[in-house]
């Protein structure tokens, strides 16, 4: 899906996203792209392995550069959490801790409620290969995990951020979609619809569609019900009139061409000298 519109305001805010010792710039960029998609703008990096800034992160951010430009770098997780009031740690493994374990939708509700009360909230994601260490999870208030295949619970860093960011944005924005279908034309009134039925049935009669006189009424009802179920607009009915008219006109042209060919053959047969005769 691609729908970037530079005329729209850039949404900012939301919980802080904290990536602990991310290994690849590409994964940082992918996470940032997901943040930009869902209105998160505050990024903190804890001791990124390849240093910072990272040009590969810019490439994979796909235009969400402003998030990278304002990213903060910390030497350890404790420093990155110091000014936060509530922290969520993402992990796919059970850690034997007496902490609430929430799904992404539950985390979204918790985050929205706490931020509405003025709290600062952080979402912590671990290393691509090993995730968060148990000691790091212990610094969080709740644990976030996702209902994934237990035999393969390995999400790419960007994917994990995207899932959580999506749930947060869906809830905080009221689930409003960026666009809706355009307003429909006014539905056709019955007079327009009946006129179309008359037109269609007249031409079907002419085309010998109704081969059984006894079944004709039932067939007509079925045809009318098809169009009633669609809920035709006045524009739809006008288009259907045009379609039927074009089909009739096309049939007439084909019949005229066929008649002309037959007439031409007859004329050739009449004018040609018969067998055994010579031209005068």
Word description of this protein:
It is a single chain. The protein has two domains: 16-172, SPOUT methyltransferase, trefoil knot domain (Alpha/beta knot), CATH 3.40.1280.10; 190-271, Helicase, Ruva Protein, domain 3 (Orthogonal Bundle). Helix 1 (25-37) runs parallel beside helix 7, helix 5 (104-116) crosses helix 7 (157-172) and helix 8 (190-206) runs parallel beside helix 10. With 280 residues, it is α/β, with parallel strands linked by helices. The longest helix has 38 residues, at 234-271. Strand 1 (16-20), helix 1 (25-37) and strand 2 (43-46) form a beta-alpha-beta unit. The protein contains ten helices and seven strands. The chain is 48% helix and 10% strand. Strands 3-2-1-6-4-7-5 form a seven-stranded parallel β-sheet. Keywords: Cytoplasm, Methyltransferase, S-adenosyl-L-methionine, Transferase, tRNA processing. It comes from Ancylobacter rudongensis. It catalyses: cytidine(32) in tRNA + S-adenosyl-L-methionine = 2'-O-methylcytidine(32) in tRNA + S-adenosyl-L-homocysteine + H(+); uridine(32) in tRNA + S-adenosyl-L-methionine = 2'-O-methyluridine(32) in tRNA + S-adenosyl-L-homocysteine + H(+).
